[in-house]
Amino acid sequence: MAATCLVVMGVSGSGKSTVAELLARRLGWVFAEGDEFHSAANVAKMRAGEALTDADREPWLAALRDWIGEQADAGRSTVVTCSALRHHYRDVLREASARVRFVHLDGSRDLIAERLGHRKGHFMPPALLDSQLAALEPLVEGEDGIRVDVAHTPEEIVAQVVAYAV
Ligand SMILES: Nc1ncnc2c1ncn2[C@@H]1O[C@H](COP(=O)(O)OP(=O)(O)OP(=O)(O)O)[C@@H](O)[C@H]1O
Ligand SMILES: O=C(O)[C@H](O)[C@@H](O)[C@H](O)[C@H](O)CO
Q1: What is the Cα–Cα distance from 163 to 52, expressed in whole angstroms?
Q2: Which atom from ligand 1 is nearest to the alpha carbon of 119?
Q3: Which atom of ligand 1 is nearest to the CA of 124?
Q4: Hey, what domains does the chain have and what are their CATH numbers?
Q5: Which of 38, 82, 131, 163 is the most buried (most CB within 10 A)?
């Protein structure tokens, strides 16, 4: 399998969009923002401060998986953002016809809450952070991926991921 997909995962506010855009540019790989694959109903729900359920997330994960596969079938490696909080969500993404690898942006609740508190113009309310942390199942042995600490700068994180992935 020639193409790789790096899924930048983690709770809301962990820095997925910030890191993944920089990473895609550095690698010259196609970038997709996972949030753009959500239905309008999912976005409305999150905006209203309600956590998504497994059923809400199912079509979203399938759409992202299909996009990763289409890009890979065309020979393109990709970088995508997706919270991918639970192991079985990651199993859906792993069904794509690419080598799917995960980069877990991990950090303390306090640090992430502080960053979310300062963020402007995003639909995701900081109040959903605790439900995200409750859902989170970190990578386990046997999953293809790494955990990186979000206390570092985005540039440092990208350098760490490039060293790992290339
Ligand atoms: N390593 C970092 N150091 C300092 N600030 C950061 C870092 N990464 C992200 N930020 C800032 O933290 C906030 C959250 O980052 P970002 O929006 O990229 O997170 P996200 O995981 O994509 O969130 P969501 O899942 O809600 O879309 C932003 O204001 C961003 O500028
Ligand atoms: O699984 C989820 O609950 C959602 O995907 C959220 O994580 C959002 O997509 C995103 O993180 C907010 O921007």
Answers
A1: 34
A2: 29
A3: 26
A4: 4-165 (3.40.50.300)
A5: 82
